[in-house]
Task: inverse folding
């Protein structure tokens, strides 16, 4: 570790990753935002899924001030965040074959919808099968993952494939294998993960693209406003009533 304070080192590392996304993923972000805009304009619904800490970025898109009201969380019991006890059970569920199919069979996903699948490693059965099964339903899939995992780790799915292999579009978060940006001579393990801040920023860039693409087509993007600004609740009630058949977190 350099003489610079660790807080500054971490922030610099995150800024470096964000700059790489801006410069290297611009085309992918534009394509993903356009795909979501096409889905909204065509009457489809939007969903986001992530397991474990990858779910944090998915949840950040749902019922979000400044976000698209049509973004719904596709939840897998026991795999959303770290709410399951004991916490390692959530990691184990990501490796269960067949779980994704059971979830999709009971979900409202249908042909014409779009699904964002966030998985840092993209190697576990749950995100791989989620992408495979969703595409079989006619759902457009955007994968958000660190592509380098496919080169440096072994897939945990029986097919030997990764999330990136089963998507209509792939966004590479650029996160290094192990998701830790800092090291220290007196600490035996790397530390300071940046995947959450980087992936959330990447996804918000996609949402911004989708909203402006809709507006450029003369379509008012179905955005939510903060409930902590005057008129926010009335605004949101109007939007959610207008799109009630495409919003699933109200019921």
Result:
């Amino acid at each position: 570790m350099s003489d610079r304070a660790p807080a500054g080192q971490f922030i610099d590392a995150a800024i470096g990753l964000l700059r790489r996304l801006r410069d290297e993923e611009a085309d992918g972000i534009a394509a993903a935002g356009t795909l979501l805009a096409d889905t909204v304009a065509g009457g489809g619904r939007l969903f986001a899924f992530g397991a474990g800490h990858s779910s944090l970025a998915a949840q950040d898109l749902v019922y979000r001030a400044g976000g698209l009201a049509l973004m719904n969380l596709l939840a897998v019991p026991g795999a959303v965040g770290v709410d399951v006890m004991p916490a390692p059970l959530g990691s184990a569920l990501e490796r269960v074959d067949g779980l994704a199919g059971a979830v999709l069979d009971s979900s409202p996903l249908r042909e014409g919808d779009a699904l964002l699948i966030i998985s840092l490693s993209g190697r576990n059965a749950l995100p791989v099968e989620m992408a495979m099964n969703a595409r079989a339903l006619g759902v457009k899939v955007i994968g958000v993952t660190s592509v380098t995992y496919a080169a440096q780790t072994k897939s945990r799915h029986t097919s030997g494939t990764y999330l990136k292999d089963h998507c209509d579009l792939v966004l590479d978060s650029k996160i290094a294998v192990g998701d830790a940006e800092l090291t220290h001579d007196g600490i035996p393990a790397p530390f300071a993960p940046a995947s959450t801040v980087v992936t959330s920023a990447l996804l918000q860039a996609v949402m911004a693209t989708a909203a402006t693409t809709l507006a450029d087509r003369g379509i008012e993007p179905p955005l939510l406003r903060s409930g902590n600004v005057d008129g926010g609740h009335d605004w949101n009630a109007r939007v959610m009533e207008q799109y009630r058949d495409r919003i699933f977190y109200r019921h």
Summary: Residues 195-216 form the longest helix (22 residues). Residues 8 and 14 are 10 Å apart (CA to CA). The two ends are 50 Å apart (CA to CA).
